[in-house]
Amino acid sequence: DNKSNVRAEFLDYYSKKQFPLCMRHIHQVLRSTHHLKYRCRLQYGLFLKGLGLSLEECLKVWRDEFTKTMDENTFEKKYAYGVKHQHGKVGGMVNYKPYSCMTIIMGNVGPGEHHGCPFKHFDATQLRQKLVEDGIPGTDTDEIMTLVKDAHYQIACTKYFELTHHKQSKSVINHPNQYFDESDEILNV
Ligand code: SF4
């Protein structure tokens, strides 16, 4: 699934238009804090790999941000290995797959961590605020909040997809990379 034309330099654009809320949130945190914690790096790094970014491009994404607060040497020593590992280039050479929604939803998110699924892991006030920021009308926001309350996180995400793309989704969102691909089909025909 290497069909997108995403390049590292266009991530800001894509993250706003075509990323699901989980990945958009992580991207914003990366840009604003120049750092992500371990499990966040895994969730986002594997998603980027799933978009078709090469190892070199992924290294560039991380290096460009992390070296705003540390020197290149520290980045290479502490963080580059993990990126290569995600691409199966070092260690056990496993070709890790991007996480599905279910894996992300079932994971634990501790204080100060930003991975996870916003529909599951954000508190109600934070989620509502995010939906309002994204221009979701009030009645639709209420509907999404009800779905979330009833633990229908992926259906809430699908509703969010449909509202932001003005089109029905082909099926319930079950993978962040599926979200991106469906978005790409609608927006980049
Ligand atoms: Fe991301 Fe899946 Fe949650 Fe949507 S339902 S925000 S794609 S984890």
Automatic annotation (TrEMBL):
Residue positions binding [4Fe-4S] cluster: C22, C101, C117, C157
Domain DNA primase large subunit C-terminal: 15-180
Family recorded in the similarity comment: Belongs to the eukaryotic-type primase large subunit family.
Chain's role: DNA primase is the polymerase that synthesizes small RNA primers for the Okazaki fragments made during discontinuous DNA replication.
Official protein name in the record: DNA primase large subunit
Organism of derivation: Photinus pyralis (Common eastern firefly)
Taxonomic lineage from the root: Eukaryota, Metazoa, Ecdysozoa, Arthropoda, Hexapoda
